[in-house]
Amino acid sequence: MSTDVADSTGMGPNLQMSLFGYVMAAILVVVMIPLLPVLIPAYLIWRAFFAPEEFEHSFETWREQSGRPPSGS
Questions:
Q1: Cβ 36 vs Cβ 29: under 8 Å
Q2: What's the predicted TM-score (pTM) here?
Q3: For residues 32 and 38, is the Cβ–Cβ distance under 8 A?
Q4: Nearest alpha carbon to residue 68 among 37, 60, 27, 13
Q5: CA 51 – CA 47 distance, rounded (Å)
Q6: What is d(CA 61, CA 65) in angstroms, rounded to the nearest whole number?
Q7: Residues 6+ apart with CB under 8 A from 3
Q8: Quick check: 30 and 23 in contact, CB under 8 A?
Q9: What is the mean pLDDT of residues 62-72?
Q10: 3-class DSSP state for residue 34?
Q11: Rounded-to-10 torsion of CA 22, 27, 32, 34
């Protein structure tokens, strides 16, 4: 008889799923290594020309834009 989804089978490692995950990770690494010479320059070109400029917010720029005077003496 099979177990239902709601039935707990215990809190132990699942060897079959762990092995499947390691095999899939190894396959992905083997596939991605030959693509690195293409992916790295493509990423750098994307960041240089197409990616939106990231703006770092800070308290100083907020204070200047809100018109609040600097605190202090």
A1: no
A2: 0.41
A3: no
A4: 60
A5: 5
A6: 6
A7: 9
A8: no
A9: 67
A10: helix
A11: 140
